[in-house]
Amino acid sequence: MYRFMRDPLILPLFAVVAGVLAGGWLHFSVSESAWPLLSFLALSIAAGALGCAGWLRRACLALALLFVGVFAEAWHRPGPPPEIDAGSREYLLLDGCVVEPSVFSEDREQFTLELDPGARARVSLAFTDDQALSKDQIPQRLAYGQKVEIEARVRRPHNYNNPGSFDYTTYLARQNIFWTASMTRGTEARVLPGRCGSRLMGLVFALRTAALDRMERLYAGDGYTIGMMQAVLIGENSKLEKIWTENFRRTGTFHTLVISGMHVTVLAGVLLFMLRLCALGEMQALAVTAAATWLYAMVSGLSAPAVRAAGGFTLYLAVRFFYRRGRVMNLLAAVALAYILWDPGQLLDASFQLSFLSVAALGALAAPLLEATSALPARGLRSIADIDQDPHIEPKAAQFRVELRLAAETLHYWLWLPVRAWSEILALAARLVFFVFDMAVISTVIQIGLALPMAEYFHRVSFTGLTANLVIVPLMAAVVPVGFLAIFSGWHWVAAIAGWMLHVSARVADWHANLEPAWRIPDPPLWLALGFVAALIALAALIHDRVWRWPAGAAVLALFTLLLWQPWPAAVEPHTLELTAVDVGQGDSLLVIFPEGQRMVVDAGGILQFGRQHKSNLDTGEDVVSPYLWSRDIRRIDILVMTHSHQDHAGGIAAIMNNFRPREFWVGANPAPALLEQAARLHIRVVPMRAAPPFTFSGTQVEVLSPPTDYDAPAVGNNDSLAFRIVYGARSFLLTGDMESPMEQRILLDGRAGHSDVLKVGHHGSKTSTTESFLGAVNPSIAIISAGFENSFGHPHRDVVGRLRSNHTAILRTDLDGLVTARTDGRRIWFDTMAWSGATGAWSGATGALSGAGGAWFGAAGVWFGHSPLGQPPW
Fold first, then answer.
1. How far apart are CA 855 and CA 828, in angstroms?
2. Into how many domains does the chain fold?
3. Mean pLDDT highest for which of 207-216, 539-548, 643-652, 854-863?
4. Does one domain contain both 179 and 44?
5. H/E/C letters for each residue in 559-573?
6. Residue 734's Cα: distance from chain center in Å?
7. Whether the Cβ atoms of residue 780 and residue 808 lie closer than 8 Å to each other
8. How would DSSP label each residue in 418-485?
9. Same structural domain, 780 and 858
10. In what order do the strands lie in the sheet with 810-813?
11. Pick from 303, 315, 309: nearest CA to 350
């Protein structure tokens, strides 16, 4: 209770947070939450006026605060999204206001168009091959506040519908973006007469654009430094490539690259120091600095961390104005309360959680630890040669000063330097030791304090971050003011210094990443997450108690170890063959769980590239498939299969290798050389597979059907696909990759196209596969089609769907159903999908029809929530 007495706003914050979570769970209406709020508030006032017991008044006040959170959640709950009456293949004429001006990447232009108040579209325009991004030829640039008309295809954003997936639609909806619009290549927006928007935001975006242009000129020709500097200083990520930031993520130093409270704090500190040097009064300097922090928050895109930091600095200014002593935890609680009441949805945002938990870890844990260890002797180092200060310093600090001076006198007898010089040298050395110690404590505390969200959102806790942060944090903190000095002055030599510090930070991150173990963490179970949070709160509350802080600290360390270790088995059904098609959009990725527990991943999705090759920031292996596997506590797989080398199947293979380290890598024809080299580096056995008799594997019979032993193709093609059948008991699953009709006919001629109960339809349901004769021979009860939602290829083709329906085959589609799963115990077959709200059909054995009396119904997917590092999509 000592912590809560010193920081009285913490308990109200807990009550409001609990109310927001309860409101989101129970879905109170505004009126249903308003009357309990007013009732408990009135009871609290009445209890105080009538002199009732203090506990009764406090209980009523706590319940009132709880319903404040419930009311805030109900008040801000979004309504139904706006609608546009058009299909995904139709071109529409759209007119609106440009509310985010043009940004250019290597191959496209993007801007945000507000069609109606609160209804926006993210517009992209792909460049034609003859368009070039240069000083002399820049495509049409749209500014904030212009009214424009465009012709574009409009689509609603669509999530990857898997457990553990990032909720992209909600991420955009929080920005009032409900559509993505694609303009036709080579077209331009027609600028309409008049202006829209606000003058203030027009000025803000003009400053932002000018800063981005200045960085383009300062670092001309250096795409890496331009992209990184624009992201670090302004929060513009359009030129940022994921590969540049991967090692910062691995070493736990990614927070230095995103607009955060650190940026605002550093800039505010530098500006405040300069204003004080100009003899400006404290309050005037604080007021100017607070205004500057808000301007920076707006110029950097009103990112949530910058807004929170600006709000915190403004609150600190108010505290100083009333001559009150600011307390970190009280200030933090006040800012969190204001922010949650203004936007309750931020409570579930990764950026919000990481920002506040890091500051809370510093204020609640690191500060008391440092105060009890290094802070006291460190205070004794001031003016160490001045003996007259000794009586005015705490006894332990004074004793440390005396011992250092005695050491200086001893060194004076050995070496020629005077005692005063040795005293200053020893004091400087002690300050360096204390600085390293303080940074190590702070880094350790933050790593432990952020372990739960890091495990949940990034599936990693950095081990090398303890030392990487010691170097990278000061360097990147210096990049911010030096970089802005370069922007304001235009001096190339200042820009070169900022760029040099950025490159040194990257090298430090790269070096530490080579030492970082390949340790990824599955989703922690609910009991462990709640227990870890409770232990951290208990430690923060009891850290000043000399008796109870040790048990609380031991509990935190024990649960932290469990969070990293997680020794419990993966979520699989024993003695069951499972085939799960992961929703990876227009691609394939399958998870096979064998009856004896072995795990196989077949393909890992990817982004198809046509024409100019531009690497996407979305890695389906890392960002889509891996989170699903981790959501099931899967940390290792036994077999990784690459059916063929097309990017929509093989694009995510590298990430699966890194994250799950399979024992064997099965490949069909024409495997990708880069992936074979990676498998060799990771000591993964590569097994080329060709058509062969069945062999026993993990309680099943596996028969490879294609490619044939004599197959040879000069270039990568769909018929390279490794196709195989898995037989368990009386049931069988056939996996075909992108195998097309020529290879289907070859299998038919060889007499190996026997019946299979579950068919993974070839080539995403293209008309080039699943011929009438092949389907008749296989005669499946269930067909699984992996295809992208409203994909441009028209998959699955209507003829294929028609043939499957004529065959009375149940069709499961990842584009409509999300993740789909078929299981068998060797006799029965049952399936479930993400989109069915928990319904699962059980399939009878002989005919493949739905079993009547014997049909069991199982809960399928439930409700799943996805997240992204720092509140942003992984691409």
1. 9
2. 5
3. 643-652
4. no
5. HHHHHHHCCCCCCCC
6. 35
7. no
8. -HHHHHHHHHHHHHHHHHHHHHHHHHHHHHHHTHHHIIIIIS---STHHHHHHHHHHHHHHHHHHHHH
9. yes
10. 695-697, 700-706, 723-728, 731-735, 758-760, 782-785, 810-813
11. 303
Q: Residue 147: what residue type?
A: K
Residue 739 belongs to a domain:
yes
Residue 434 has pLDDT above 80, yes or no: yes
Assess whether 13 and 162 both reside in one domain: no
pLDDT class for 435, splitting at 50, 70, 90? confident
Asked if residue 835 and residue 699 are part of one domain, the reply reads yes
The verdict on residue 230 lying in a domain is no
Instruction: Name the pLDDT band for 810 (thresholds 50, 70, 90).
Output: very high
744 and 670 Cβ atoms separated by less than 8 Å: no
Which run of H or of E encompasses 526? helix 526-542
Q: Which two tokens stand for residue 400?
A: 């440390």
Helix (H) / strand (E) containing 749: helix 741-749
Average pLDDT over residues 729-755: 92
Region of residue 486 (left: phi > 0; alpha: psi -120 to 50; beta: else): alpha
> Rounded distance, CA 728 to CA 575, Å?
10
H helix or E strand, kind and range, residue 350:
helix 350-361
One domain for residues 109 and 12: no
Higher pLDDT, 514 or 388: 514
User: 617 vs 43, which has greater pLDDT?
Assistant: 43
Task: Find, among 208, 221, 199, the residue nearest to 484 by Cα.
Answer: 208
What is the CA angle 815-821-822, rounded to 5? 125
Q: Return d(Cα 641, Cα 721) in angstroms, integer.
A: 10
Quickly state the pLDDT bin for 385 (edges 50, 70, 90).
Answer: confident
What pTM, to 2 d.p., does this model score?
Answer: 0.84
422, 443, 464 — which closes off a domain?
Answer: 443
- Residue 543 shares a structural domain with residue 598: no
130 burial type by CB count under 10 A (0-12 exposed, 13-18 middle, 19+ buried): exposed
Residues 98 and 33 reside in one and the same domain: no
For 129-148, the pLDDT digits (tens) are 655 445 456 678 888 999 99
Instruction: For residues 264 and 276, give the distance between their C-alpha atoms in angstroms, rounded to a whole number.
Output: 18
Token pair 């100017």 in the structure block, residue: 288
670: in domain: yes
Q: Looking at the domain assignment, is residue 503 inside a domain? A: no
Rounded CA gap, 537 and 555, in Å? 11
Among 157, 181, 197, identify where a domain stops. Answer: 197
The full length of the chain comes to: 875
Dihedral sign, CA of 348, 351, 352, 358? Answer: positive
CATH number at residue 597: 3.60.15.10
pLDDT over 90 percentage in the chain: 36
pLDDT per residue over 34-61, tens digit each?
A: 998 988 888 888 887 777 777 788 888 8
69, 16 Cβ separation under 8 angstroms: yes
Nearest to 233 by CA among 472, 488, 493, 466: 488
54 shares its domain with 166: no
pLDDT digits (tens, 9 = 90+) for 148-175: 999 999 988 988 999 888 888 888 888 8
Q: Which domain does 540 fall in, by range?
A: 526-565
